[in-house]
């Protein structure tokens, strides 16, 4: 079993995290604006409320990640793996992107402070 790593509201704007192995990492509320996450592995990561605007998520593994309330605007998500990733009504996607078609699951209710998204 993989242990969960927590980073306290990190600022990783423009960080080069290509090919990084960050499974189950807690990046809730993180600033990942314009970060390079090409080919990164983030299965089960907590990205609740994270800002990933203009990040490069090409071929990024986000299986079962928590994307509730995350900002995913203006992102290259070609070939990103979103199977089982949770999102809610507060998750912001790039115009025309269909998260359900990409395998993401809409949560029952928007997550608030201290709550977890639950899949429907």
Layout of SSEs?
Blueprint: E1 71-72, E2 86-87, E3 92-93, E4 105-106
Parallel strand pairs: 1-3, 2-4
Unreliable stretches, pLDDT < 50, 5 or more residues?
A: none
Number of helices in the DSSP assignment: 0
Q: Indicate the mean pLDDT.
A: 87
User: Overall 3D geometry?
Assistant: globular
**Integer tally of domains:** 1
List SSEs in N-to-C order: EEEE
CATH class: Mainly Beta
Helix content: under 10%
CATH superfamily: E3 ubiquitin-protein ligase SopA
Give the beta-strand count.
4
Write out the strand line-up for the largest beta sheet, numbering strands in chain order.
1-3
Question: Can you summarize the main beta sheet?
Answer: 2 strands, parallel
Under the CATH scheme, which architecture would be assigned? 3 Solenoid
Q: Report the structural category.
A: little secondary structure
Strand content: 5-15%
Spatial gap, N to C terminus: 26 Å
The radius of gyration computed from the alpha-carbon positions, rounded to a whole number of angstroms, is: 13 Å
CATH third-tier fold name = Pectate Lyase C-like
Question: How is this structure best described in words?
Answer:
It is a single chain. This protein has no helices and four strands. The protein is low in regular secondary structure. The protein has a single domain, classed as Pectate Lyase C-like (3 Solenoid). The strands form two sheets. Strands 1-3 form a two-stranded parallel ribbon. A two-stranded parallel sheet has the order 2-4. The N and C termini lie far apart (26 Å).
């Amino acid at each position: 079993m993989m242990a969960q790593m927590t980073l306290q509201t990190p600022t990783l704007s423009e960080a080069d995290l290509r090919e990084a192995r960050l499974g189950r990492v807690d990046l809730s509320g993180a600033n990942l604006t314009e970060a390079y996450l090409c080919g990164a592995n983030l299965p089960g990561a907590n990205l609740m409320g994270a800002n990933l605007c203009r990040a490069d998520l090409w071929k990024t593994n986000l299986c079962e990640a928590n994307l509730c309330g995350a900002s995913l605007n203006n992102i290259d998500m070609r070939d990103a793996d979103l199977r089982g990733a949770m999102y809610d009504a507060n998750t912001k996607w790039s115009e025309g992107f269909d998260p359900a078609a990409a395998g993401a699951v809409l949560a029952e209710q928007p997550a608030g402070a201290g709550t977890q998204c639950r899949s429907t």
